[in-house]
Specification:
heterotrimer, B: 11-stranded mixed sheet, 18% strand, C: mainly alpha, 81% helix
């Protein structure tokens, strides 16, 4: 028994200092009043929460959930075959893995700007398509929801690839062989044997993608042209140009509460992947 | 590997602290000094300057609001000075340490936001207007023209609530800093009408697209517009006839600074005509320093985007600090416009 | 099936690296704007002339290495501990820290540091950034390592203990080796997240602790400068070479 407790000790300390305390601060902020310059001021109030229950903000939340769900689903579809490929590679496994991470050591903002350059009316893709005569006038590839989805999926692919790979790598090849012996085509094996067995990785990856997508603000701003407001933009705005920290804190607390409930429901059905 | 890095970083840190020259920490907007400005100050006064940059007032304020940020001199936009003073963040300016104040342009010696120049020294200023492609005939020189369906999909507005709503307000002939809810709601309706015509809400990123011709007209700040014009001669800039905002970034000394004298010396250094002129030639911004402006070549001094003639300048407004209730309404309106 | 997977992998990696390649190509463009003028190494020279970039890179590396090391160790221990004996509170806290939007984490950590510093007269610096990075990286590590742990059978440890090993030996010699790929994957993730982080870092960085993302962001938000392209190309090159070298070392 003792070893396990020791193992958890550093995390407890860390969580207490660097999570609970800040969380308590944000919670406190959400009950205070805004200062003119930003920051917070004395009178305690529940005004921020009252403002929250307004169809405008609830629509923003809904839209964000929809966007995050779509991104996660797309990420899963694209990442799974790649993770499968890497786990089955005989040589160079680590190389492939690191090649997945390589683009992500350059700045996120820079990669997003690269996408803008590619998707613009006079960008590479449109120019290439026009040059080959496939289209005659530029396609509006940028500043819409499609571009935002592309940006989000691109940005979070490795978060999906790594956990799925970690699970697939441990998969017993004998199970796959057994399926083949029983007459299953490879594609059937994938859907009926491999995918169910890699559920822990899928769930982990989905969580790691869904949650940041929910809070994303830079990608929707840049690739979406600032045309829509997602919950990430809303929170970001409150802490910057709107200078309303209490409201921003309240939105964050609501967001965190909703996601916690969601996760709790998910984990109950999943028989608790983490503990 | 970790131990090595640890010791190297320790050595690095130790190396830093061995520099015994006095230190000054300056936090400024990006590209607001010339390459030689800070080294020149360091050499002349025998000090070391830690110079870092930020992209928005809020970024700077988030650090400075705590009262323990470590910065000595920062450069807020003029309408943040009054609240900063109310929060006790600013040290009063000692005019006897700032003989260079005499170099300021007449318009900035007693500005509306700080008539006695108690808290901030005007540094650089700019205005918001319309940058457009010359191929557009007639050229869009009024805010009204940005609601023209012929520009559909080829124009952008700033992704900044103050500027964007301000343009709608000016289009309706209302004050830029209006706090009247009915005014703001009318402005919101204009914005919602305009939204389908817009390509996007973009800030400095639109420069690239103006140069390449993707975008034909954009609401943009004068200094950024000038950068685009420098890169593509088929662009031009106009200050709208209905009125437009003017912003002035001012140098302030923070109350938390323990090097007030040195901070004042730095601000005074920036007020020297030669130094200021060198900065402007490098950054292509508009300086509040009249003596420096006289030293500039005519092409820069009379640049209509950076230094509009007096009759155009007179149409400009200096935005006020907004009270919290108005700020909240504007923010809500901004969210509604974006969600539309 | 193997061929389809291989073909898909090629397309996948092409998609991942397309923006990078574009950046690299245009880093040699002499024009500031994305209209090709002529070949030039000007932007590469600009990198080395700019002390901000050099210092930012150095800071980023120090922070990333420290943060990865600390969060991987703490996170692995945590994942293992949770696997043996679950803790609802800890799991909940870990998930919550993941859910918090970055700006909120940044602001709250800044507030925490400021309140603490009132008593100790300290200031923000590299160490506050490292602490902040560890704070948000732990959850990532725990999730990835836990996913791996689910595929490890507890029977293995029990068997080891039956054969006379104590708890620590069972962990170190039986479970840990099985976990290694998961730990490496988690460490890689933590390294990337730390190196690339902007929002939280910019909030808690001190006067002397500017990181590379902060430098790049500042440059990019003024309008994309080819210096950024050059930096990205260089980073890719350096890391690419490092990866190849580590492959060679592994192969021998």
């Amino acid at each position: 028994m003792k070893l396990r407790s020791w193992f958890l000790l550093p995390t407890w300390v860390w969580m207490a200092a660097l999570f609970t305390a800040p969380f308590a601060i944000v919670l406190g902020y959400s009950f205070l009043t805004r200062g003119i310059l930003g920051g917070i001021e004395a009178p305690w109030t529940i005004e921020s929460y009252q403002r929250l229950f307004d169809p405008l903000y609830l629509t923003v939340l809904l839209r964000s959930f929809a966007m995050a769900l779509t991104s996660t689903a797309l990420c899963l579809v694209f990442a799974f075959p790649a993770a499968l490929f890497i786990s089955r590679a005989v040589r160079y496994k680590n190389l492939y893995l690191q090649l997945v991470m390589l683009p992500f050591w350059t700045s996120f903002l820079v990669r997003t700007y690269a996408w803008i350059f590619l998707l613009r009316d006079t960008g590479l893709i449109n120019t290439a398509l026009q040059a080959t005569g496939l289209i005659h006038s530029p396609l509006p590839l940028l500043y819409n929801n499609g571009a935002v989805l592309l940006g989000l999926v691109y940005g979070y692919l490795p978060f999906m690839v790594l956990p799925i790979y970690a699970t697939l790598e441990r998969l017993d090849p004998a199970l796959v062989e057994a399926a083949a012996d029983l007459g299953a085509r490879p594609i059937t094996t994938v859907f009926h044997v491999i995918v169910p067995l890699s559920k822990p990785g899928i769930v982990a990856g989905s969580i790691l993608v869904f949650i940041p997508c929910l809070g994303a603000y830079l990608t929707p701003d840049l690739l979406g042209g600032g045309r829509t407001v997602l919950v990430g933009n809303l929170v970001q705005n409150q802490f910057t140009s709107a200078r309303d920290w209490p409201f921003g804190s309240a939105v964050s607390i609501l967001l965190m509460a909703l996601v916690t409930v969601l996760l709790w429901a998910l984990l109950r059905c999943e028989s608790e992947p983490l503990a | 590997m970790n131990r090595r890095v640890f010791f190297m970083s320790m050595a690095g840190l130790a190396g830093c602290t061995r520099d015994t020259r006095p230190r000054l920490n300056v936090y400024n907007w990006s590209t607001y000094v010339a390459p030689g400005t800070v080294p020149g100050f360091e050499a002349e006064f025998g000090v070391r300057v830690r110079y870092a940059t930020y992209e928005s007032n809020e970024e700077m304020l988030a650090k400075v609001l705590t009262g323990n940020s470590g910065w000595d001199v920062v450069f807020p936009t003029h309408n943040r000075i009054e609240p900063m003073h109310a929060y006790g963040l600013l040290a009063p300016l000692q005019h006897e340490w700032l003989p260079g104040l005499a170099n300021l342009d007449a318009r900035f010696r007693a500005p509306v936001w700080d008539a006695a120049l108690e808290w901030g020294v005007p540094y650089m200023w700019n205005g918001t207007g319309i940058v457009y492609n010359r191929s557009l005939q007639p050229p869009p020189t009024r805010w009204d023209d940005l609601w023209d369906p012929r520009l559909k999909g080829r124009m952008t507005m700033l992704d900044d609530p103050e500027d964007m709503l301000g343009a709608c307000l000016k289009k309706l002939g209302l004050p830029f800093s209006s706090t009247d809810p009915s005014d703001l709601l009318r402005a919101e309706r204009e914005a919602v009408v305009q939204k389908p015509l817009l390509r996007a809400y973009l800030n400095a990123e639109v420069r690239d697209q103006l140069v390449s011709g993707d975008v034909l007209a954009a609401q943009l700040w004068s200094t950024t517009a000038q950068q685009a014009i420098d890169a593509a001669s088929n662009l031009a800039f106009a200050y709208p006839a209905e009125g437009f905002p003017l912003y002035c970034d001012c140098a302030v000394v923070l109350r938390e600074s323990r090097r007030a004298r040195l901070a004042h010396q730095f601000v005074d250094y920036l007020l020297r005509p030669k130094v200021s002129a060198a900065i402007v030639e490098s950054t292509k911004t508009a300086t509040a320093n009249g003596a420096a402006r006289d030293l500039l070549p005519a092409a820069v001094r009379d640049n209509p985007a950076l230094y509009p003639p007096p009759d155009v300048f007179a149409r400009g407004e200096w935005p006020h600090t907004l009270p919290p209730a108005a700020q909240r309404l504007r923010d809500r309106i901004w969210t509604e416009i974006k969600s539309a | 099936m193997k061929r389809w997977l291989a073909a898909y992998a090629v397309a996948f990696y092409a998609f991942l690296h397309l923006p990078l390649l574009t950046l690299a190509v245009f880093s040699f463009n002499s024009s500031r704007f994305t209209v090709w003028e002529h070949f030039s190494l000007e932007w590469y020279r600009a990198i080395f002339r700019d002390p901000q970039i050099v210092e930012g890179t150095w800071n980023s590396i120090i922070i990333a290495v420290w943060a990865t090391a600390l969060s991987t160790v703490i996170g692995t221990l945590c994942a293992y501990g949770l696997w043996k004996r679950g803790s609802r509170t800890l799991t909940g806290a870990l998930y919550l820290s993941l859910v918090t939007p970055e700006i909120v984490t940044g602001v709250s950590l800044l507030a925490l540091f400021q309140w603490t510093f009132r008593w100790f007269h300290w200031q923000l610096g590299l160490y506050t950034v490292i602490l902040a990075h560890v704070a948000f990286s732990i959850s990532f590590v725990v999730i990835v390592v836990s996913a791996r742990l689910r595929t490890v059978s507890p029977a293995l440890e029990e068997a080891a203990m039956d054969l006379g090993a104590n708890e620590w030996q069972a962990f170190f010699y039986v479970t840990l080796p099985a976990l290694l790929p998961g730990i490496l994957a988690a460490a890689l993730l933590a390294l990337t997240v730390s190196f690339d982080d902007y929002v939280i870092t910019s909030m808690v960085a001190g006067v002397d602790s500017e990181t590379l993302p902060m430098v790049i962001y500042a440059m990019a938000r003024r309008g994309a400068s080819p210096v950024i392209n050059a930096i990205s190309a260089l980073i890719t090159l350096v890391f690419g070479v490092l990866i190849l070298i580590s492959e060679r070392v592994r192969a021998t």
